[in-house]
Every structure is written in structure tokens, then in C-alpha cells.
Amino acid sequence: MSKTIIWWARRDLRVADNTALFNARQDADIVVPVYILDRALLTADRLHGPRVTWLLDGLRALDADLAGIGGRLIVRTGKPEDMLIELAQQLDAQAVYFNRDYSPYAATRDRQVMDRLAAIGVAAHDFKDEVIHEAAETFSNSQQPYSVFGPYRRLWETLPKPSIVPVPDRLNTPTQIDSEPIPVPAAFGVTESIVPIVAAGESHAQARLSDFIADRIYGYADSRNFPAVDGTATISPYLRWGMLSIRTAFHAAREARERAPSASTRDNAETWIGELIWRDFYYQVLARNPHIVTGAYRPEYDAIRWQDNSGFLDAWQTGHTGFPIVDAAMRQMNTVGWMHNRCRMIVASFLCKDLLIDWRVGERYFMQRLLDGDLASNNGGWQWSAGTGTDAAPYFRIFNPTTQGKKFDPDGAYIRHWLPELAKVPDKFIHEPSSLPKAAQQAIHMVIGQDYPAPIVDHGEQRERVMALYSTRANGTLTRSDLQ
Questions:
Q1: CA distance 136 to 90
Q2: Which domains, and CATH codes, for the chain?
Q3: Which one from 81, 134, 270, 275 is the annotated catalytic residue?
Q4: 241 catalytic per annotation
Q5: What is the block-wise mean pLDDT of the chain (484 residues), using blocks of 10 residues?
Q6: Model-level pTM?
Q7: Quick check: is 54 catalytic?
Q8: Active-site residue (options: 241, 316, 338, 382)
Q9: Annotated catalytic residue: which of 81, 172, 341, 432?
Q10: Residues 6+ apart with CB under 8 A from 217
Q11: Which of 47, 124, 323, 435 could form a disulfide with 114 if both were Cys (CB 3.0 to 4.6 A apart)?
């Protein structure tokens, strides 16, 4: 009798280098790919928005890719444990295979699924796939978890790396299994559309990675901080949804490093590999510290008395703060569902340390807007900027948005692209358009307060205020040594 295994797809929407899918085909004659649309996730405030549209596009692409190896995607809507029980019984499946997820919600969900399946005699097997190294693999010599990136990276680099698994041969998915059609975004209340920075699907992910590895990786360290330059890989949305394997990305980068034509280009490739290691680092931080989903990594910072200014928040969210680099970055994210990493640091610092608004507000907005919104990396990045996370320099790192703009967008190309109202502002004033003389403003039809806002805060004044904000808390005073 043929053995049947359900492959439960979640954050691994691909057929290549997919650990659970490959093992399912190794262990069974018939593999049934299943994706469950979980309304608890797709309608949640943190996850709702344009990214739902991109996910649904990714499911269509996956269905097409599965057809190429004799499969098809079976879609269900409901609670995962209920849908999997129903399908396992309907198909007389012997097991359900899936790749591990590390968020607290996913960990709880997966335990419930495994318990429910075990109760009806169906095996459940989970696999490492989303990271290179899991938290359990990265303890120090004293068996303590890592909270500092440098030592973590040194250990990470010494560990043997998992191999890429091949595309499985024919899945033999039965054609008579009922499947819901992949719905339109409106089914989950999503009516807003964007023009995504990259197209969904595994083939687009592979093409984007190949293009970067072939050439641009060798200039990555030099160009990655300049948002007007196409100097990054822009594969983070694909990694977030598993349309590209992290192993595939790592092995491609390692091969590029080995064939680098010079020491300088090798260093550039090494810098990009470091970004993949940062991703693993934040995943192990999340796995070991689930409290960071709602609070600071260092709980003493939960007592900071953030200000609640809805006008400031709206200006930040819509890109109307009067600080061009901040506004350009926010409009980029709102338009294409992605933001350059240098700009992520700038706008995060601006929200927390210029507008004095709780980092969690910004972290939630990013999760709503970014196609690559990933709990571990997004939370880690925001806590780094806010100074509440694993980093040792909490409030002493305060980005000046104007000087950041001048340094990383010197001729204002990025600003002019996303802020067309500033297109005719001379280079000398592009980062501080409010300092352009009034007559000159009128001559180019860009009047501050009419066509573009004046700065909503004074950075110098806010810097002093945030220093005071971080130095006090509800039950006493934080000294400088507390904050190091």
C-alpha cells in the first residue's frame, strides 16, 4: 500500500532546497502539499495589509511550481490543527511533515498540532530549515546563550553548515483532492494595493539572488549604505516567506567569496555573509527570550515614559516630518513594501529619539507595511535602534537625520525620487529645504508649510529630551552604568 505524507507549507513557499518537502518525498510515495490560511494570523493587526496580497501571489506561484513535479497545492481556511486532522483522516495519511517556525505563536500552535495528530495516530515530524543554526546549536563554552553578536558570530562560523537538498522527484499528489481556490486579498479585508519592490515566487527569488551574487556582492560593503544605489540583494521578502532558502543564499555567498578576484571583493562578500549571521542571531534571541514580542529585551527599559503624540506619529507614518531622508524612506515603504536598511535605522532612531514615541509603535507599523516583516529581525532591529535590546549602546547612539542624509544620500537622488515636491531644490538645501530662502522657494514652487512641511521638531532640543527620558523610570533613576 502506498504511503501518504502531508507536507504542511508555512514559511517555506518553494520546491527547491526545502527540507520538509524533500524528506516527505524520500519517505512516501505520495506527497500532498497543504497550505492553511489561518485567519488568526492574516487578520491580526500586526500582520494585516499589503503583505497579505504578496503572500497570496506567492501561493499561486508555488502551486505552479508544484505542478512541474507532479504536485498541486491544497488550500484550506481555518485553524491549522482542525484542518490537518480533517485532511489526514480524509487521505489516510501516515504523517505530516513541516519546517520549524520560532515565534512564540508558532511554537504554541505547532505543539498543539503535534499533540492532536498523535492522538489519532498520525506522526508529525518537524525539520530545521528557516535558519542555518538554531538556538540549541549556539551555546557558549559555559553553556550560556549569546547576547553579544561578535562572540556569536565567531562560534557560528566554526559550526559545520547544512547542505542544500535537491528538488524532490514527482510528488504524485492525487488530483481528486478538493482544494479551495486561492482567495483574493479582500477575503481578509485587505483592499489597499502597492507596487511591490520584487515579484513574489521562487523563480523571481532565484533570479534576484543570482544577479546579486554574480557581481554586486563584490561591492556590497561599499555601497550598502547608499539608498539611491542598487547595492543590496533585496532578497529579504523571499527569505521571510521561504521563497528562497537561507542555505541556498549562504552557499551562493560562500562560493562567491571563494572566487572573489581580490582581497577587497572578498571582504565585501564576507560582509554580506555577516548579514545572514545577524539573521540567525536575532532568531536565537527570540527563541530564548519570547518576552521581547511585547517588551524590551532588558525589561528595565519597559519603564521609559514614552510620549504619545498622534500628530507626530501620523507625520512619521505618512512621510511628512520635514526631514527629507525620513520622509523619503517612509514613502518608499508605503509604496513598495520595502525600505533600505540604512533608512530603517534612520527612521527608527527618529521615531524613538526625536519624536520620543515607543519603539513598539514603530515596530508594529513596520510589520504591517513591510513585505519582509519578520518578527525576529524586525524586533531585533527596532530594539537595536531604541537601545532596549542586546546592544551595549542604548541611548548614546542617536542618529541625526540631517547629517545621515548628507552622508548617505549626498546629492539627494533618493530623496528626490520619493519626494517629487523637492525635485527642484538645489543640492545645497536638499537635506534642509526649510533653510532655502523664501524667494527661492517660490521660484521653484516649493514653499515650506505649503508644498512640504517644516521640521516638526528641533533635533538638538529633542536629543536633550531623549537623554532625560532614558535616564528616568517609574521606580527610580537609571545611571549611566545601568545603561551600558
A1: 36
A2: 4-129 (3.40.50.620), 131-162+202-288 (1.25.40.80), 299-477 (1.10.579.10)
A3: 275
A4: no
A5: 92 98 97 95 84 96 98 97 97 97 94 97 98 92 83 96 97 96 93 93 98 97 96 97 98 98 97 98 95 93 91 98 98 98 97 96 96 96 93 75 98 98 98 98 97 97 88 47 33
A6: 0.94
A7: no
A8: 382
A9: 341
A10: 233, 253, 256, 268, 269, 272
A11: 124
